[in-house]
Amino acid sequence: MTTTAAHIVEVAIPLPLEGHFHYLVPEPLVPRALPGTRVLVPFGRRKLTGYLLGSAPAAAGELKEILDVLDEAPLFTPDELEFYRWIANYYLHPLGEVIKMALPAGINLVSRYRCETAEDGTPVIREFLAGGRNVRLERFYAALPDPPVKPRGKGLEILEYLEYLRESDESAEVSGADLRARFGPCTPQLNRLVELRAVRTAEHEVYRDPFKTQIFGKDQALELNEEQKAAHGRIAEALRAGSFAPFLLHGVTGSGKTEVYLQSIAVALELQRTALVLVPEIALTPQLVGRFKRRFSCGIAVLHSGLSDGERYDEWRRIRRGEAQIVIGARSALFAPLSDIGIIVVDEEHEGSYKQSEGVRYNARDLALVRGKQAGAAVVLGSATPLITSFYAARQGRLGYLKLPNRVRELPMPATQLLDVRGKKGLTFLPELVQAIEENLDVGGQTLLFLNRRGFATYLVCEDCGHVMRCPNCEVTLTYHRGKGRHICHYCDYSLPAPSVCPTCKGKEITLLGRGTERVEEEVQERFPLARVARMDRDSTKGKGGHARVLKALEDGSVDILIGTQMIAKGHDFPGVTLVGVISADASLNLPDFRSSERTFQLVTQVMGRAGRGDRPGRVLVQTLAPEHYALSHAVAHDYEGFYDQEIAFREEVGYPPFAHLAALTFSGIDSRQTEQSAQEAARLLRKIKGEVRLRVEILGPVTAPLGKVRGRYRWQILVKGRERSELHRVLFHLRGSFSHPSTIRLVIDVDPVEML
DNA sequence: AGCACGCCGACT
DNA sequence: GTCGGCGTGCTC
């Protein structure tokens, strides 16, 4: 046995590189070089932070030595590492980058170079390390007994205050920031007090608490109805059993899902376990955090991308130290360093915002199941309109199915009606909708008008030659935004000033076809001049608080009619809304995406759910060119089962399996001669698939010819959106004849992990 | 990702 | 003559 063998470690580097690297650990660092710590390593001619994975048995070649161990204690546990490895493997992403993404931002050291001028005037390049931890230290003050001398003036006031505190608590300390808040600027006085030995001082780490100044009241568990009790009972039973148990909580809008979450979490806490709650958007966290703070007296941490690096790091440390038992946040909260998780809630599990689409591409809804499995936790996927995938998994018995078919407090579901707009294309509102809005205004109810198209006109046609204005990059039609006075591409943000001349015939007459929210807002104002009208979409809510401002106006009743895009469909609870009008349900129905029916059903159901949540019943009118489409007919009938049955049948028929989030293509055991054939077959299949496709391409075997950008890699993945389909064809083209020996190419698609657990 | 090495075009 | 363009290759 050699002594050095034990001192070889495996290190993951946060760079887009396959594989890990091995280093020697110098003797003095051995006790500190634990798995889960960050280490500073020489890498090429740079110094980088890597993550120590564990000891390695032996390694070939010359090894470099670790320069330093950067942490006193591991940042991640073996369990967490296992989770990171799962992610790296599933999403084909380097482990080092996965770990970096999972840990709070801004704590890594990297070498940088700086040009300095030496004393003799010659420039020198100095290497230094940038980045690093981000702990806030604050100075605390406490009175000492029997001060030898007392100052006068403000100094005396401060001293008397500190002495007063000391009487009730020997160890009472006050931060400099608190003293300055109380006494105004007083740094010189404080320094003087320390100098006089009347006050002692110490530095402590402090947390930056995003909710510090808010005061929360207390509330109590609400009475559950029968279905809520049944759902809660099954979750509680699973928690007591203590093993992995995934559930789909299918509760109609307004059915009280949150109360089920709260009471289930209470059970987990009683069992001394912790809880993780994921919400789709930052905008929804404050509302929910308030509700949790009123209900629970334990530590609650919040994690989302709206926090500063410092705040996030502080919340992370609180969680790691076990000072928070509940974590609430957006998708990145999935990586909260909670120990012994008992329950993971994924609220509005159907929301697309659970997908991370930059860097490590992951879906927090999927990974919640994986983390839950590893932790032996209950995982509750909650939604009024679950993913087809989830519903299918529930049917197959892979997810426990918990149903809340009724609204709480015996509120009825809104009365709904489809309005056929065929042959009435010029009208924004059919007479029935106009009348319903008038009636609703008369009785003082609020109205939501939903249209999933921003801007003023969505289709710009030249009167003279019929040319349609399109984006030169994306081929999509340009949308006219009256507010900005520009023609804008909603795909890439390319824009032209308006009014524009026709690019082909230089004609000046451009007809504005198609309606966006801007035009609907204008029409509503013309038609209902006395109504107070507001608009909510990406354009009208730009900047911080824009979103909250519109919602506040709706809440306090200063808006009668709100026009908006899907933003208005999301989980807000406004008791004053009694009428919902869908201007056109067709925009989302005709998107080139194999999930357009699913999306439309979800969107229409969600927006319908905003109606009648208060004391008065709600009414919904849906205008469409396709009233017999099953997504719409089932939505307005509140017939979930019917819709899911039909959609699952459709998926099976067209070959988009209902257990896959994306479409599936698998090619295995292909040798060089079959490659061309398979590329052609893949291209043919891909033409049939609409929407987004993520392909994992694995080549097992030697690659002998250049493969464009992917040369030298044996595994990679490509995400292909509709308009990038040609990019995939290019890659597949490159695959042809690239293998001198029989190889295996597998093109695999994302499958819901619940199918694999 | 960086950073070096290397091999060709337009510059003081 | 060399400065710098980015193609290619490597990092324990």
TrEMBL record:
Its EC number is 5.6.2.4. Zn(2+) 1 binds at C462, C465, C502, C505. Its cofactor is Zn(2+). One of its GO terms (cellular component) is primosome complex. Initiates the restart of stalled replication forks, which reloads the replicative helicase on sites other than the origin of replication. Recognizes and binds to abandoned replication forks and remodels them to uncover a helicase loading site. Promotes assembly of the primosome at these replication forks. It comes from Geomonas limicola. Pfam families: DEAD (PF00270), Helicase_C (PF00271), PriA_3primeBD (PF17764), PriA_C (PF18074), Zn_ribbon_PriA (PF18319). Coiled coil: none annotated. This is Replication restart protein PriA. It is an enzyme of class 5 (isomerase). Residues 473-662 form the Helicase C-terminal domain.
